[in-house]
Design a protein that fits this description.
By secondary structure, this protein is α+β, with helices and mostly antiparallel strands. It has 22 helices and 13 strands. Strand 4 and strand 5 form a beta hairpin. Helix 20 crosses helix 21.
C-alpha cells in the first residue's frame, strides 16, 4: 500500500510538471516515458515514441526523461550536430506506477536500483533459475545470479552519476533501452521470463575513441585479410546463449521493419533499405563522433558502409524484442559464414508509421577495459600508504637535487652526462652479460663493436642483479588474480626497462582493485603461465649467479681482490644516485617478493613455501617448483 501511495504521488507530481511545461511549449516526463493526454483519474500510459519532430529538427538526441530546468547542450559544429548529454537536476530513473510491460518494467527497476545503489534489489530482478548478462565492454560475460551480483556490486559501486533513460521500447518479453550516464551514452537489451525476471541482458557503452569515416578505409584493407585468417579462437569464447529468442523472436510492426531493413543491408540494397527510414530520422552510430540527421545523411552512411565491406559480410540478428513502436536487438557479424571477432552489437530502433525515426547502434570494442563511467575516487588505506611511499621514493631518489636529505648523487635534472653514458652502455653492451659472454667465446653479433666498453665489475653486477630480479616479477604479477583487470604487462615493462619505482603505484592500484568473480575464473582457466614461470625463473637464477660471480671474480684488472671490490661498492652506493636507488630497490623487492608469493599461493591453493622469504633466489626457486607444470614440480597439494 505504501508503494502504491508513493507511486500515485509521483504520478501527481509528473502531471503537474507536464502541465507547467506545456504552458511554455515544453514537455516534462518521467524517465523512459512521456505523458500523453490522459483521462481524469488515470495515469498516463507509457510511450516508446518520446522524441518530437521539433526535437529532431534541432538535432538533439531524444530524451524521454526531460525534467524542469534541465540544461540542454547547444548544438555544436556544422551539418550533423552532436549531443552532449546533460544530467537532469533531479537525476536518475524512478520505477513508478507507469503501466509498462514485463521487460520494460524490469529494465526500469534495474536502472532505478543502480542509481539508488541498492544492488540487492538489482540482483533479485535476475532469474535464480539461470541468467546471462553480457557487458560487451568487459572481457567476460556473467552467468548465474552469483556472478551477476558480483558484477553489479563491483562495477557500479563507485559511480558518481545516475543512469538516465532516454528511450525504452514497448516490449513485454523483451525490450531495448537507451541511456546516458554523465557524458557516456549506451544501450541495453533485456529479455525476461514469464514471471518478469531477467534471463538475458546485453549492455554496451559508447567507446572512448571514435574512428568515424576512417573506419571505411580500415575495413577495405583489413577485412580481405581477416577473411583468410582463422578467427575461431576469438569467437569460441562467446557464451552460448540459451535465452536468446533468435531473429524471429520479436513480433509486431517495429520488429518487421527492422528485420526488413537488415535483410536489404545484407544484400547491399541501400535504396530499398532506406525506404524504411523516415525523412526526418535521427541515426546514432556511436563509433562516429556526430549523429546522422535526415534520410539523405543516413543513406550516405549506409552506402559508404556497403561499399567498404565484402559481399559475404552480413548482420545476423541474435535476439529482437516485440513491439509496435520500438525494438531492441542484439546481433553479430559473419564473414564468409564464420562469426567475425569483436562484432557483437546492441541496437535500438524507434518506428512510426512503418518507418524508423530514431536508431542507436553500438558494437563491442576490441579493447575490453570496462565502461569507463565516471566514478568517485576511492582508495583503501593500504593504497594511500603505497601511493605516499611511491611519492616519497620519487621525490627523494629521482627528483631531489644533490645533497638533499642526505641522499647521495644527483637527481634526474642534475644528472651528469657520464652517468647517462654509463647507464646507456650497460643497457646496450652488458645487459645480462650476453655480449661479454659471446665475445669471450669468439662469437660476434652484427652491430657489436670490436672492443666492448669495460665497466667496473661491481657496477655491472649490481645493474644485472637488479634487472634479473625485476625480470622474475613478471610471471608472478601475471599469476596474481587480484590485479587481473590491470594492464600488468605495461606496468612491468616500465619496471623492467625504465624505473623500478613504478612497482609501488602498481601495488597501490592493486590494493583497491576488485576484479569480478567471472574475470578471476577466466584468468584461472587460461592457466598459471607455468612455462613462463619456469623459463623466467631459470634466466633470473642464471643471471643472478653470474652477477655474484662477476661481483667477486670478474675483470680482476679492474676490480682487484674481494676486499677492494667491497670497498668500491660501499663508496659507489654512497656517492652515486643510481646505485643508491638500486640498493633501495633491492630492499623493497625483498618485501614485495614474499608478499606477492603469499598472495598467489592463497589464490592458487598452494602449500606455503618457506624459502619465499629468501631474497632473489627464493623467487627463482618458487617459480621452478610452483609453476603448475609437472616437470620438476614438487607435490603442491593444499
Amino acid at each position: 500500500n505504501a508503494q502504491v501511495l508513493a507511486g500515485n504521488s509521483r504520478v501527481s507530481q509528473t502531471r503537474m510538471m507536464a502541465r507547467a511545461h506545456a504552458r511554455r511549449g515544453q514537455t516534462a516526463s518521467r524517465p523512459g516515458v512521456v505523458p500523453r493526454r490522459e483521462s481524469r483519474g488515470r495515469p498516463a500510459a507509457p510511450s516508446a515514441l518520446t522524441q518530437s519532430s521539433r526535437d529532431r529538427r534541432a538535432y538533439r538526441v531524444p530524451r524521454a526523461g526531460r525534467m524542469p530546468r534541465m540544461q540542454r547542450a547547444p548544438p555544436r559544429g556544422r551539418g550533423n550536430r552532436s549531443f552532449s548529454p546533460a544530467r537532469p537536476p533531479g537525476g536518475g530513473v524512478s520505477a513508478g506506477s507507469f503501466k509498462l510491460g514485463r521487460a520494460a518494467s524490469a529494465a526500469r527497476r534495474y536502472f532505478d536500483a543502480l542509481n539508488a545503489k541498492d544492488y540487492g534489489s538489482a540482483e533479485v530482478l535476475f532469474s535464480p533459475e539461470g541468467c546471462l548478462l553480457e557487458d560487451l565492454n568487459e572481457p567476460v560475460c556473467f552467468a548465474g545470479r552469483d556472478q551477476v551480483r558480483d558484477y553489479i556490486s563491483k562495477t557500479f559501486a563507485g559511480l558518481s552519476e545516475d543512469f538516465f533513460l532516454q528511450e525504452i521500447s514497448d516490449g513485454d518479453d523483451a525490450c531495448g533501452v537507451t541511456w546516458v550516464n554523465g557524458s557516456k551514452r549506451g544501450a541495453t537489451f533485456v529479455r525476461v521470463d514469464r514471471s518478469g525476471r531477467i534471463v538475458y541482458a546485453r549492455d554496451l557503452a559508447e567507446p572512448e575513441s571514435k574512428p568515424g569515416d576512417a573506419a571505411f578505409s580500415i575495413m577495405k584493407v583489413v577485412l580481405p585479410v581477416l577473411k583468410n585468417l582463422d578467427s575461431t579462437k576469438v569467437t569460441e569464447g562467446w557464451p552460448e546463449n540459451d535465452f536468446a529468442g533468435g531473429a524471429g523472436a520479436g513480433g509486431g510492426e517495429a520488429a518487421r521493419v527492422v528485420r526488413s531493413f537488415y535483410d536489404h543491408i545484407n544484400r547491399k540494397e541501400v535504396d530499398e533499405a532506406m525506404t524504411y527510414f523516415a525523412e526526418d530520422c535521427l541515426y546514432e552510430d556511436l563509433n562516429f563522433p556526430e549523429p546522422y540527421v535526415g534520410k539523405d545523411a543516413v543513406r550516405t552512411l549506409m552506402q559508404k558502409s556497403c561499399d567498404s565491406i565484402p559481399e559475404d559480410l552480413v548482420f545476423c540478428i541474435d535476439d529482437i524484442s516485440e513491439g509496435a513502436s520500438g525494438v531492441g536487438l542484439t546481433w553479430h557479424l559473419e564473414l564468409d559464414g564464420k562469426r567475425f571477432p569483436f562484432s557483437r552489437g546492441c541496437s535500438f530502433y524507434k518506428v512510426k508509421d512503418g518507418q524508423v525515426v530514431y536508431a542507436r547502434d553500438l558494437v563491442e570494442p576490441s579493447s575490453k577495459k570496462g565502461k569507463a563511467l565516471r566514478e568517485e575516487v576511492s582508495f583503501s588505506a593500504a593504497s594511500l600508504a603505497l601511493f605516499a611511499a611511491a611519492a616519497l621514493y620519487t621525490s627523494l631518489l629521482i627528483l631531489s637535487p644533490p645533497g638533499f636529505a642526505g641522499v647521495p648523487g644527483e637527481g634526474i635534472f642534475w644528472i651528469k652526462p657520464e652517468t647517462l653514458e654509463e647507464v646507456q652502455g650497460l643497457s646496450l653492451y652488458d645487459f645480462f652479460f650476453v655480449l661479454p659472454a659471446l665475445k669471450s667465446v669468439g662469437v660476434g653479433v652484427p652491430g657489436m663493436p670490436e672492443t666492448l666498453p669495460a665497466y667496473h665489475p661491481v657496477i655491472e653486477a649490481l645493474f644485472n642483479f637488479v634487472n634479473a630480479w625485476s625480470l622474475m616479477f613478471y610471471p608472478l604479477l601475471l599469476r596474481d588474480t587480484k590485479s587481473v583487470s590491470l594492464p600488468k604487462t605495461a606496468w612491468w615493462s616500465v619496471q623492467m626497462f625504465l624505473t623500478n619505482a613504478i612497482l609501488m603505484p602498481f601495488l597501490a592500484l592493486r590494493a583497491s582493485n576488485e576484479p569480478t568473480i567471472a574475470r578471476v575464473e577466466a584468468a584461472r582457466s587460461e592457466g598459471n603461465h607455468g612455462l613462463l614461470s619456469k623459463s623466467f625463473g631459470v634466466v633470473g637464477a642464471v643471471v643472478g649467479v653470474a652477477s655474484v660471480f662477476w661481483f667477486a671474480l670478474a675483470r680482476p684488472e679492474l676490480g682487484g681482490d674481494l676486499a677492494r671490490r667491497v670497498d668500491y661498492f660501499a663508496n659507489y652506493i654512497s656517492t652515486d644516485r643510481v646505485a643508491f636507488a638500486f640498493c633501495v630497490d633491492l630492499a623493497l623487492y625483498s618485501v614485495w617478493q614474499p608478499y606477492l608469493i603469499s598472495e598467489v599461493e592463497k589464490q592458487e591453493g598452494l602449500r606455503p613455501d618457506p624459502l619465499k622469504f629468501v631474497p632473489f633466489f627464493g623467487l627463482a626457486k618458487w617459480l621452478q617448483t610452483s609453476s603448475g607444470l609437472k616437470l620438476f614440480d614438487k607435490d603442491q597439494g593444499t
